[in-house]
Design brief:
The protein is an alpha+beta fold. It contains six helices and nine strands; from the N terminus they run ββαααββααββββαβ. The protein has one domain (about 30-190): SMI1/KNR4-like (3-Layer(aba) Sandwich), CATH 3.40.1580. The chain has helices spanning about 20, 40-45, 55-60, 115-130, 135, 185-190, and strands at about 5, 10, 85-95, 95-105, 145-150, 155-160, 165-170, 175-180, 190-194. Strands 5-6-7-8 form a four-stranded antiparallel β-sheet. Strands 4-3-9 form a three-stranded antiparallel β-sheet. The longest helix is centred in the middle third of the chain and has 14 residues, at about 115-130. It holds the Pfam family SMI1_KNR4.
Length: about 190
């Protein structure tokens, strides 16, 4: 296990130990365990892919969502304000213009094979299976886009269309488009902010 949740704090082990050094804020962020049932093995078999250990370990231990209506707080969240969700900032190039995106993690992360995964995967399938958005896919196999976070309908997905470690892509339904966002899930954790 590369990540363990200890009293809502992420502890990193093995190859992941360098993440808090690269993003010191991550040691003070609040996280909840993800208790949503999931089974990623059939997805790996069907698509002939292998999920990164860091991705599965972190989301299981720290990707959970918790909301108490009486207290109005969520996880993952900032250390000093439990109602303030974490976010990831990244740049995309849209029509030759660079645009900064702030992706809020109000609902946390979810694992492949969970109910949230299948809900967003169904939306992806409905959108891309018709061939109407082949230009936006830019040669990608849409089945190898694995959603793991949702911000008001926009998605972050692991893109297994690359040969090495999957990249993180941003899919927006505002005009339907796909943009490279981060080079890896580890890079996402390094960029995590509040």
């Amino acid at each position: 296990m590369l990540v363990r949740n200890n009293s809502y704090k992420a502890l990193f082990y093995g190859n992941a130990q360098s993440i808090p050094k690269q993003n010191p804020k991550i040691s003070s962020m609040w996280f909840a365990k993800n208790d949503e049932p999931f089974d990623h093995a059939p997805i790996e078999t069907e698509l002939n892919i292998k999920f990164p250990e860091l991705f599965l370990s972190f989301i299981k231990e720290c990707g959970g969502f918790y909301f108490d209506h009486s207290c109005n707080y969520s996880y993952p969240c900032a250390p000093d304000d439990m109602s303030k969700s974490l976010s990831i900032g990244f740049d995309i190039v849209d029509n030759k213009h660079t645009k900064n995106i702030k992706f809020t993690l109000f609902d946390g992360f979810y694992l492949p094979g969970s109910a949230s995964y299948y809900n967003d995967k169904e939306t992806l399938d409905e959108c891309f299976s018709s061939g109407e958005y082949d230009k936006e896919l830019d040669g990608r196999d849409w089945r190898k886009l694995i959603p793991f976070a949702n911000d008001n309908g926009d998605l972050l997905c692991l893109d297994f269309n690359v040969k090495d470690e999957p990249e993180v892509v941003y899919i927006t339904y505002d005009g339907v488009d796909i943009f490279p966002a981060l080079t890896s899930f580890e890079r996402l954790l390094i960029e995590l902010d509040y």
